[in-house]
Amino acid sequence: xxxxxxxxxxxxxxxxxxxxxxxxDTDAGGxxxxxxxxxxFERARTEWLRAAGVEQRLLEETDGVIFVVKNxxxxxxxxxxxxxxxxxxxxxxxxxxxxxxxxxQAWRLGDETPxxxxxxxITVVCVNADGFRPQAIPKQxxxxxxPISKPILQAQCEPx
Length: 160
Hints:
Layout: H1 8-14, E1 15-20, H2 36-51, H3 56-63, E2 65-76, E3 85-95, E4 99-108, E5 115-128, H4 139-145, H5 153-156
Antiparallel strand pairs: 1-3, 2-5, 3-4, 4-5
């Protein structure tokens, strides 16, 4: 099943997005620069939202709202290196009237056992696109992104 064909319920159970580490992602030491995990997580959340049936550009045009990152923390467990194949996971931890809290992880594939590299806790807030004031997440979006159950993160990583 392609990532874009995934249903919203499947996306909420544990969406996965593949990323390859390129030279531009690494620092002088040859490992992924720590801030690039935030870029990887952003890409995975964007694709998760698309898989759930929400196009961010259309959301801004039709409802006048966008999602912005309010808070993020990342714990780094092991380094990723040039050419590593990563699997990024997206799990909805909590949804409120104006925000969504995610747990995201970066896993290195290719070894016998996937290796956990980083875990992020990210909160995004729905804001009005003109003034960046908090605004309720549109009902049609809430219906597509509500979490189904609490994640079991270690068991969710499987090669795509």
